[in-house]
Amino acid sequence: MFASPLPTLYLIADVDTAGDLDVDLLDIVSQFVRAGGRMVSLRPGDIDDRSLLDIGAEIAGLLFAVRGIFLVHRRVDVAIALGADGVHLPSRGMDRRELRHLLLPSAVIGRSCHGRQQVQYCARNAWDFVTLGPLFASISKPGYGPNVEVSEFSQIAAAAELPIYALGGVVPDNARSCLDAGASGVAVVGGIIGASSPFEATAQYLEALQADCGG
User: pTM of the predicted model, to two decimals?
Assistant: First the structure.
């Protein structure tokens, strides 16, 4: 795991969301990085492996150039092929111990969580971070969530011994409240991918998270 704290702003670069909105995912990540974003996970969707590797290599280059953190959702094989910094796994999937013999010791390994028990499991098994949500109504998945109340999120975060990213419907106006509730940072999909200016949206998130924004 990286010696320095993880950044508080985490972009999940979702292939399907970008496709549904007919926007250029690589350009969005480029704007995110230029605005100061330093942590991105590529989430595969309806895309062939060759195209996934191609866009992944471009995104990896953008993050590596600024010493950022590049992860891949679910696809451990793609993460290895691209020399990614780590992986972000779904709530149900490989165990962390199964991954350690596949990835470098320094790899960042995260997991999606949707409730207290999943977070506690990840904390006990030394996962590097988790996302928890949806906390608010999702932007990228209309009608999905919230299923974690802010008060419950705060209780889970207070008891957890690992970084927790608030996920689901997080916008600049409520980003700071997520930190106040105990989040280590916020994970964003539609709030940046669907923005008219991903650069300006990123800057607004970072401003809202200015306390220990970490880039």
Answer: 0.93
